[in-house]
Amino acid sequence: EALGLEQWDSEEAERAVRSAPDEAFTHETLATVLTDRNRFDEAANAILESIRLENTRASAFAVLARIRRHQHRWTQCLEASEKGLLLDPDATECAHFRALALRGLGRTREAENVLREALARSPENPRIHANLGWSLLTTGFADDSLAHFREALRLQPELEWARQGIVEGLKARNPIYGLMLRYSLWIGRQ
To answer: How far apart are CA 18 and CA 160, in angstroms?
Structure first.
């Protein structure tokens, strides 16, 4: 998104790879575009080629983690995000996906800790706020989650994930609904 890739189509990205096949960045760009188009298997092939060419870019591991997250391959998502964080401990996207993977693996408290550390480094990141909101909502802290969803929306008003969190957080204030929501989120991880 920061690269303006939302306007690219996969043909343009594939042309970029053909024109510079030995450049890791072109494969990473293709992987990002394919991920945005929900073509996850092809995206995984492209990002793995990028990493094969140059395995020192935290951003490439963040793209791989993002793909694995969409595929619900939580262990692989965690591994990719942790490799990215080894390369750059301040890689916010890697921290974001690490927390998603931890939550997907049922390690919600660890996910909260990762997100709080990421917020300390990047307090203006709306996705980190939304992610922490969902983690708090999962563990039954609806009121605390709402503060993070609101902050995410203040920072990025069109962030649909945070909007959904606000709705669920407000509903979760009802004890019965809150219990059903936590059960539903738990079942979703299984």
So the answer is: 35
Burial label for 18, CB within 10 Å (0-12, 13-18, 19+), is: exposed
Q: Which two tokens stand for residue 174?
A: 């009802």
Predicted TM-score (pTM) of the model is 0.81
CA-closest candidate to residue 65, choices 56, 74, 57: 74
Q: Which of 45, 44, 49 is nearest to 23 (CA)?
A: 49
Contact assessment for residue 145 and residue 133, using Cβ atoms and an 8 Å cutoff: yes
pLDDT in tens, 54-110: 999 999 999 999 999 999 999 999 999 999 999 999 999 999 999 999 999 989 899
Residue with tokens 């990025």: 156
Structure tokens belonging to residue 96: 């974001």
Q: H helices of the chain, where?
A: 10-19, 24-36, 40-53, 58-70, 74-87, 92-104, 108-121, 126-138, 142-155, 160-172, 175-189
**Contact between residue 125 and residue 154 where contact means Cβ atoms under 8 Å apart:** no
Cβ–Cβ under 8 Å, residues 130 and 148:
yes
* Encoded tokens for 44: 């995984």
